[in-house]
Amino acid sequence: MFDNILVVCVGNICRSPIGERYLKQRLPNKNIASAGLASKKSHLEGKPADSMAQKVAQENGIDLTGHQSQQLTSQLCAQYDLILVMEKGHLNALTDIAPEARGKAMLFGQWIGQKDIPDPYKQSKEAFDFAYQLIEQAADAWAKKL
């Protein structure tokens, strides 16, 4: 039913690329991509994953090579059956961009107590490690549900 999954955060350089690649490992038969709510506004479109995100992902067996940030659009949302956002506030931001997609959007942390996954951008390695642990727990829970 949910064969096309889009993972969304703000800039599409930290949380969503890790979430995307981790889910791809767990659900190899699904089409999974990621995008950012403010990639364009933040001048991050086309940029690779954040260097600390790459380091933490690599330490956990996830390769972010080749990732390029892309802006979330209503056209992009139309291509996916399920859209997973990192924070509750992202649901409103998603609705501003693509109101028609609200019904297929849920929290990435839905099955781990509806937890927000905090943005580690420009923070310590510990912040990235913490975000990674939540992403891993949430993705494992989604893999069981899907």
From TrEMBL:
Ranges where the Phosphotyrosine protein phosphatase I domain occurs: 3-145
Source organism superkingdom: Bacteria
Keyword set includes Hydrolase: yes
Keyword Hydrolase belongs to the record: yes
Reactions that this protein is recorded to catalyse: O-phospho-L-tyrosyl-[protein] + H2O = L-tyrosyl-[protein] + phosphate
UniProt keyword annotations, A-Z: Hydrolase, Protein phosphatase
CDD domains assigned to the protein according to its UniProt record, in alphabetical order: LMWPTP (cd16343)
Cleavable signal peptide: none
Record SMART domains: LMWPc
Principal EC category: hydrolase
Enzyme nomenclature, EC number: 3.1.3.48
Family: Belongs to the low molecular weight phosphotyrosine protein phosphatase family.
Protein name from the UniProt record: protein-tyrosine-phosphatase
Lineage, top ranks: Bacteria, Pseudomonadati, Pseudomonadota, Gammaproteobacteria, Vibrionales
